[in-house]
Amino acid sequence: MRILTFFFLFAILPAFAQDKSKGILDDLSKKIKSYKTFYVDFKASIKNNDTGVNENVTGKGWVSGNKFHTIYGDNTVISNGVKVWVVSKEDKAVYISSVEDDDDESINPKKLMSIWESGFNSKFVSEDAGVYTIHLFPKEPGKSEYHTIILKVTTTKDLKSVEVKMKDGTKMIYELLKFDGNVEIPATKFVYDKRNFPGYQEVEN
What we know:
Layout: H1 2-33, E1 37-48, E2 53-64, E3 67-72, E4 75-79, E5 83-88, E6 93-98, H2 109-112, E7 120-128, E8 131-138, E9 146-154, E10 159-166, E11 171-181, E12 201-204
Parallel strand pairs: 6-12
Antiparallel strand pairs: 1-2, 1-11, 2-3, 3-4, 4-5, 5-6, 7-8, 8-9, 9-10, 10-11
């Protein structure tokens, strides 16, 4: 009887972990979507031992619906919900693409605050000091550049941090420092104006 009980518990624990993580993430999504607009401050670290990449930057982002504007380091990313303009000060260039062409490695404040909503299975890992740890795994790992994503969510359903592990060894950690919902954002924030970047080369992807 004890053996049967053990196997029963062993079988239901993964499902319980999935259900608990889903409930937490559903509540988190519901809370974020209750805001028409939001503003975030964050810091990010990007590391890859194989390529020697080791960057630490701070950033800020504005989101309204499917539109976003983010600044991190020397880069500015603007999207009107249809196109994305990535402005690189180092390259003195503007890289233009459609939102459909957005790749796995491109993290913007809109994606950061909703990355768990599609394409992943979730697993509840732990709760410690008022913070839940949840792991995300691609549903189709063969088609994804992601290996694992680790979310830290407070018990008050606020996103604390996102750790992204890529298959190529790159690790990106985003820590949310500030979140303000329903802030006033001018419509011009989501409009790319080439006059603001004189001398920059425009590159269509």
